[in-house]
Every structure is written in C-alpha cells, then in structure tokens.
Amino acid sequence: MQAQAKTDKTSRSIIGKLIIQYRTILILVALMAVFSLLKPVFLNPINLLAIIKNMSYVLIAGLGMTFIITLGGLDLSVGSIAAVVGVGFAMLIRGGFMPAIPALLIVMIGAMLLGFINGFVSVKGKIEPFLVTLATLYIYRGIALMLTTGRPVPIVIPHFADLFGNGKLFNLIPSPAIISLVVLLISWFLFRHTKFGFYVRSIGGNPEAARVAGIDISRVKIAVYTMSGLFACISGLILGALMNGGLPNVGSDLALDSISGVILGGTAISGGVGSIFGTLGGCLIMAVLNNGMSLMGAQYHVQIFVKGLVIIFAVLMDNAFKSRK
After folding, report:
1. pTM of the complete model
2. Which CATH number do you get for residue 124?
3. CA atoms within 13 A on the CB side of 74
4. Count of domains observed in the chain
5. 37 in a structural domain
6. Residue 270's domain spans which residues?
7. Per-residue pLDDT reduced to its tens digit, 219-238
C-alpha cells in the first residue's frame, strides 16, 4: 500500500515537473486550441502569417531583453528607442536630405548609443537598471516628441516598406519574419556558444563568483545594454515600415510585451537562467493573445488586463519551477 502511494506521488511529481518545464509550449497550444474553437478563422493561414508578422518586432526586442534579464537587469526604454529610430530615420531621408543607407547606419549607431547610455549610467552611477531605464523611457520618448512636435513623419522612399515591413519572400513569408529569424539565430549563437553568453549567464547567476573568476562585469553589462539598443533599432525600423512613417508614440507597449514574452519563455526574472527559443515561444503566446482577443472583439483595456494576468501566472510557474529544482 505504501509502495503504491509512493509510486503515485513520484508519478505526480514527474508530471508536475514536465508541465512546469514545458509550460510555454502547453500554454501556446492551449491558447491556440481555445481561439480556434471560438473563432475558426484563427487557424486561417493568412491570419497565422499575420500573427508571425506582428510578433516580429516584439520578438527582436525580446531577444535583447533575454540577455538583459538573464544578466539580472531590466530595460524599460526599448519602445522609446524604437520610436526615436523611426522618427530619426524618417527625418533624415525626408525630402532627399540623405540616402537611405547612411540614414540607416546613423540611426543604428544612435540606438546603440542610447542603449550604451542606459548601461553606462547604471554601472558607473551604481543605479538600479529599472530606475535608469524608467527615466530614459521618458527622456527618449520626449526626444521623439520634440523632434516631430508630436506629428508623424512619413517615410516614402522606395523598397523600405517591402524590406522591413510588407514585403514577402516567395510571395508568402513576411519580410519581418525573415529578419526576426536571422536575429533569433544570431542571438542563440551568442547566448549558447560564445564567452559573451557564458559571461551573461554567470553574472546573472552569481555576480560575486563572476567577479572572482575575473569577468569584467561592468563591461559585459554595458555591452548587453548597447546590444539591446541595436535590437530596439531593428524593431523600430520594422514598426516604421509597417506604418510607413516615424511615429513618436509608437512602441508604447513594446517593453512590457517583450518582457512578458521573455518571462513566459522561461527566463528567470531573478537572472542566471535564460532561453532564446523560450523567448520565441513566449512572444508567440503574446502575439496569439493579442490576435485572438482582437478577433473576439475584446477592447484594449481587456487585452492589457488579460496580459497582466498571464504575466502573473508565468512568474508563479517560474517560482514553482525553481522550487522543484
């Protein structure tokens, strides 16, 4: 009798561990099943491609956020950096003031500089990244609004929208999906197969041990925030292409959506543990939620309420996973 009870307990424990370990896939499958039952059009290939397309800029920002959260930090300014990039690019190429390629290089360097400022102020000023990026969220957004006086700036150069927004490979795969796939593979390689990724995980897991091991923690932190600025730049270019202009208010939800995707993907909010492909799954969950609720006619306040509940659920699952380990 006791042996049977022990076996049942062990089986429940194994099932519980599997559920928590593969929670991202299970949540994604469950959401897709629910929405497909409620709205059969959800499984239409056109709608599924739209989900992937609209997820792309969140995923790219989320990949940068994966490094930051694994490091033990946070970046609330990515949406504002994306807005500055879109506005800056639109203003540089407006009226033929500058060719597209030099303008792209300038906004990329500018976005990396904004990310560098986040990391530099946090490290050298010994200020929590949450507070620094909360401040720069407003500062960078203010820059975008001041540059445009709050008005959108159209982007009308040829091929830009096709390259970053509405183009399709083989007349099927959206160009943002291809860009996000390239960034995903590069991020995975950096995270899992380079010293840089190892340093990020080590610092997030045990900063004191990383310091004793000779890792330059300050340099790695600044590099991660600079990289996040670059990824936010790519997200901003995609948003600009999708909207055919630089909008100073664009990306207001980008930081929270990307953070949600990272946490849902299994990256520990406390740092040290991260997953690039987990972030892909987490961002897919956020995209499926947005798309499914829109198909059902849910208003914006309902959507953000549900996303908040999902984040709490994800953090609870993360705590359960750590306690079982």
Report:
1. 0.89
2. 1.10.3470
3. 19
4. 1
5. no
6. 51-324
7. 999 999 999 999 999 999 99
